[in-house]
Design a protein that fits this description.
CATH topology: Alpha-Beta Plaits
Helix content: 25-40%
Order of helices and strands: EHEEEHEEEHHE
CATH class: Alpha Beta
Strand content: 15-25%
Largest sheet: 6 strands, antiparallel
Distance between the termini: 36 Å
Radius of gyration: 15 Å
Number of strands: 8
CATH superfamily: 7,8-Dihydro-6-hydroxymethylpterin-pyrophosphokinase HPPK
Structural class: alpha+beta
Mean pLDDT: 90
């Protein structure tokens, strides 16, 4: 049986009651086979990437210990998105009911057509880095050697608002 790997999952929603979308997604993550939901960050409101004429996003990061392979986990996350009404469209960074992304998967570096780990551009996204920093070890190092604290120092807390309606509220 494969050993447990720590995966960090980014969650985002700006349609269909985003608070409920994230809470329901966390319930689904907690129920994944061969996996254990370990930690969840606070919820953050963030300005949208891409088209500006869409609502702000609600974001969080979850830590998941799993025996699933990266592609099995991706399939499970996409099933959760679909179950919660996600429609995949050609428009990149458009509004969505739920977006679940594998940010990190242990020390793995993966570049496949369906999955890139670490998640591309995560180093430039405050709505990923600040929630990740809440639940990851301060010494977290990405597979390419960069440290989380260095990435945070280069990524201002702009357009981001930590909310009091996180997973435990």
């Amino acid at each position: 049986m494969p050993s447990m790997e720590r995966a960090y999952i980014g969650l985002g929603s700006n349609l269909g009651q985003p608070l409920q979308q994230l809470r329901q997604a966390l319930q689904h993550l907690a129920g994944l086979p061969a996996s254990r939901l370990v930690a969840v960050s606070s919820f953050y409101a963030s300005d949208p990437l891409g088209p500006a004429d869409q609502p702000r996003y609600l974001n969080a990061v979850a830590a998941l210990d799993t025996r699933l392979t990266p592609l099995q986990l991706l399939d499970a996350l996409q099933q959760i998105e679909q179950h919660q009404g996600r429609e995949r469209k050609d428009e990149r960074w458009g509004p969505r009911t739920l977006d679940l992304d594998i940010l990190l998967f242990g020390t793995l570096q993966l570049d496949e057509p369906r999955l890139q780990v670490p998640h591309y551009q995560m180093q430039a996204r405050a709505f990923v880095l600040y929630p990740l920093a809440e639940i990851a070890p301060a010494s977290l190092q990405l597979p390419d050697g960069r440290r989380l604290d260095e990435l945070l120092a280069a990524c201002p807390f702009t357009g981001l608002e930590r909310l009091d309606c996180g997973p435990d509220h």
